[in-house]
Amino acid sequence: MGHGIGQVFARAGHSVVLTDPNEAVLNVALEKVASNIRFEGSDPERVICNMSTCVDLQRAVRSADLVIEAAPEKLELKQHLFAQVAAAAPTHAVLASNTSVIPITRIGERLDEQARRRLVGTHWWNPPHLIPLVEVVRTVHTSEEVFEQTFAWLQAAGKCPVRVQQDVTGFIGNRLQHALWREAIALIADGVCDAESIDLVVKNSFGMRMPVLGPMENADLVGLELTQDVHRVMFPDLKCDKNPSPLLGQLIAQGHTGMKAGQGLRSWSLAQAQEVHTRLAAHLIRMTQPSPDSPKS
Ligand SMILES: NC(=O)c1ccc[n+]([C@@H]2O[C@H](COP(=O)([O-])OP(=O)(O)OC[C@H]3O[C@@H](n4cnc5c(N)ncnc54)[C@H](O)[C@@H]3O)[C@@H](O)[C@H]2O)c1
């Protein structure tokens, strides 16, 4: 995620330093960015000239206005990293975490009050240079100025930032996404349909509308009376399990962990898995080309 996030700010003309304790990662990071840009049919030079790498964390952040952490999803590691960054970065620098699920408040537990005011969540989506959304998450400590400045920087860099006013688990997007996955996996486990049917249903029905009609627009379109009637009938039957489905545990125990293993909820040949990645990237590039029905509004 880190090099893709850096790519977005470098494309917007900012000077970006990528840092990582693993030099091998840094050695290929700029080539990965160049390859992303070539895939879009553009010349990487204009972007790459704004980027550099530095293995030394203190040196990398010492003149930063914004530091975005995209290290492994481990609380201890992130807490330690932010303590180091807060000590090394300028005292005005905004400190942002790209955590997917860890509450931002917990990540800031080792910081003093001044640094906590500058800590914010910026939850990007993969691949970060193509997916427009960034959820900007505030804690009870985050200052209004830091929250709004982060939002403004992301908007100016061409992203679609959204304000998340409370530090809730999973923020907005992952709460919505995993509520759907919980129901989908339960339908398979209960024998209502197979995994392929779930994907066919979503891709050939409400999934087609979503780029132009978000769920709240859709609720207003069908009308709130109908929405209320539907919820009265369905909600008693929808899943509200507090734990992951036992089906996931069974598949994992059999080594069926997903695309990389050739089998997960569905079966995958290597060629099919590669084709999905290429098709997805090409689709996202098409979706993000400016057009009158851009999904950002
Ligand atoms: N991959 C996704 O789809 C996705 C999407 C949204 C958010 N995120 C979040 O972004 C973060 C990074 O995810 P990723 O998929 O890019 O992980 P990754 O494992 O690909 O990259 C993490 C990088 O952090 C480096 N690292 C390890 N220890 C470090 C340390 N002490 N200091 C600094 N860097 C260190 C690693 O060398 C590695 O290059 C995680 O918090 C993840 O939850 C990931």
How would you explain this protein's 3D organization?
The protein has helices at residues 2-11, 23-39, 45-48, 57-61, 75-88, 104-107, 113-117, 144-156, 173-189, 195-203, 206-209, 215-222, 224-234, 246-253, 270-288, and strands at 16-18, 51-53, 66-69, 94-97, 119-124, 133-137, 160-164. It is an alpha/beta fold and 297 residues long. Strands 3-4-5-6-7 form a 5-stranded mixed sheet, sandwiched between helices. A two-stranded parallel sheet has the order 1-2. α8 (144-156) links the parallel β6 (133-137) and β7. α12 (215-222) crosses α13 (224-234). The longest helix has 19 residues, at 270-288. The protein is globular, with a radius of gyration of 21 Å. The protein binds nicotinamide-adenine-dinucleotide. The site of nicotinamide-adenine-dinucleotide has 17 residues, from α5. Nicotinamide-adenine-dinucleotide is lined by residues 1-2, 20-22, 25, 70-73, 77, 81, 98-100, 124, 126.
Topology of helices and strands:
Blueprint: H1 2-11, E1 16-18, H2 23-39, H3 45-48, E2 51-53, H4 57-61, E3 66-69, H5 75-88, E4 94-97, H6 104-107, H7 113-117, E5 119-124, E6 133-137, H8 144-156, E7 160-164, H9 173-189, H10 195-203, H11 206-209, H12 215-222, H13 224-234, H14 246-253, H15 270-288
Helix pairs in contact: 12-13
Provide a quick synopsis of the model:
With 297 residues, this protein is an alpha/beta fold.
Helix fraction, binned, reads 40-55%
Task: Give the total of beta strands.
Answer: 7
Relative strand content: 5-15%
Low-confidence stretches: none
Radius of gyration: 21 Å
The average pLDDT score comes to: 96
